[in-house]
């Protein structure tokens, strides 16, 4: 059999996008992602080293992966993350390296990340009130996140994107102020629907404020939202621009409007388990191969098998839906 050069699943979806979790640790405790207490972090020896991550990425790049997103847990709690970024931007075939962060440690790291060659930055911000931050994160820190956003702008990151999860009963009155903030600061804002990946298993459909409901609220407050160009048809977000020319808003609606049909993403957890979907109930153990004498070809074969086994969709809305055992922080959002 000839060596595959692409990661194609049984539905013809070509996978070019890899999410790399660099840690399961975090400095805050968002209720939609982590438990509040007794968090079971992986022992450090189980977490992939920078060398292992780089090797895995090289192999994935050989199979057509060109975009990376570093995530976690909170990626900025991983020591010397800028050193990993330096390695990854240099991997042949990788054209885009992005990072998703809660922003708490960003003010002190923004310059280093920029100098390391990080291309893009997403910063999570669900509201502008400290009270909202604490209800969600169960820690203080909004001022540090806002300082992080400012620092990222100052060191020259362009197209910074804010990620907001909207939760009924908590963030309704944050939606319009967030929209205003993004318009003023020239930041792109993306709303992500709350997904059943909380560690406590308390997710309820009625806590989800759908992208459609948020869109309506923003249009009432500002101006009509007009669909934006869609240069990448596999992107999960539906993007809009305000008709008055000020601001860009995206909606990631996995619950109300799943986008699995064009999904091109795969993931590797901090301890080296490959997943073909956020909601996978099965994983492929790359760490075991990376730590044995396994050849690059056998790791590539494992990746091919993982992508081939991908299901058509996550099925959140079906009766057969099985919530993954792992919560968001253990997978890498
Ligand atoms: N710690 C970083 C952060 O918060 O940006 C990166 C990891 S976090 C898991 C990645 C993104 O997933 C964040 O924007 C977070 O708000 C989002 N997220 C976490 N749990 C979620 C859930 N149950 N439903 C929807 N989005 C979630
Ligand atoms: Fe930490 Fe991000 Fe999860 Fe919040 S969403 S607990 S910041 S990993």
CATH A-level architecture: Alpha-Beta Barrel
**Regions with little confidence, pLDDT below 50 for 5+ residues:** none
Top-tier CATH class: Alpha Beta
Going by CATH, what is the homologous superfamily? Aldolase class I
The helix content, as a percent range, equals 25-40%
Q: Radius of gyration over alpha carbons?
A: 19 Å
Number of domains: 1
Main pleated-sheet profile: 12 strands, mixed
Question: Could you explain the architecture of this structure?
Answer:
- The protein has a single domain, classed as TIM Barrel, CATH 3.20.20.
- Strands 7-8-9-6-5-4-3-2-1-10-11-12 form a twelve-stranded mixed β-sheet.
- Helix 1 packs parallel to helix 2 (81-89), helix 1 (50-61) crosses helix 9 (296-308) and helix 2 runs parallel beside helix 3.
- Helix 6 (175-185) links the parallel strand 5 (161-166) and strand 6.
- It has helices at 50-61, 81-89, 106-116, 130-137, 142-154, 175-185, 211-221, 286-290, 296-308, 328-331; strands spanning 17-21, 67-71, 96-101, 120-124, 161-166, 188-193, 225-227, 238-242, 248-252, 265-268, 273-275, 284-285.
- The longest helix is centred in the middle third of the chain and has 13 residues, at 142-154.
- The mean pLDDT is 95.
- With 333 residues, it is of the alpha/beta class.
- The relative contact order is 0.16.
- Bound molecules: S-adenosylmethionine (SAM) and iron/sulfur cluster (SF4).
